[in-house]
Amino acid sequence: MAIARALSVYPPVLLADEPTGNLDSHTGEEILSVIRDLHARLGATVLIVTHDKEVAESCPRRIALRDGRVERDERG
Predict the structure, then answer these.
(1) Rounded to an integer, what is the distance from CA 39 to the centroid of its chain?
(2) DSSP codes joined into one string, 6-44
(3) Which pLDDT score, from 0 to 100, does residue 38 have?
(4) In the chain, which end has fewer C-beta atoms inside a 10 angstrom radius, N or C?
(5) Are 52 and 20 in contact (CB under 8 A)?
(6) Is the pLDDT confidence value at 44 over 90?
(7) Using CB atoms within 10 A of its CB, is residue 9 exposed (0-12), middle (13-18) or buried (19+)?
(8) Model confidence at 22: pLDDT above 70
(9) Which of 38, 42, 45 is nearest to 15 (CA)?
């Protein structure tokens, strides 16, 4: 429901704070699939904050922060 509410105004940027947190792996993958589809269809920038390495590695760009500073900025 939170995703639907956030998208009701077609935002240019979608912020997702731990979108798969506390979800089983199947439901988490479904949520990530919805987010990817929205990115593709709406062209919105998606910012995902996560501690889950698998989720992070599935993203085309990863920025790691440590103590409020950029530690790494990777693409691919």
Answers:
(1) 10
(2) HHTT--SEEEEESTTTT--HHHHHHHHHHHHHHHHHH--
(3) 83
(4) N
(5) yes
(6) no
(7) exposed
(8) yes
(9) 45
Tokens at 37, concatenated? 């589809």
Residues 6 or more apart whose CB falls under 8 angstroms from that of 72 comprise 62, 63, 64
Per-residue model confidence (pLDDT) at position 8: 63
Mean pLDDT across 47-68: 94
Residue 52 DSSP symbol: -
Contact present, 71 and 64 (Cβ < 8 Å) = yes
d(CA 18, CA 6): 15
Q: What are the C-alpha distances in Å from 20 to residues 36, 66, 73, 74?
A: 13, 21, 22, 21
Which phi and psi angles does 45 have, rounded to 5°? -75, 135
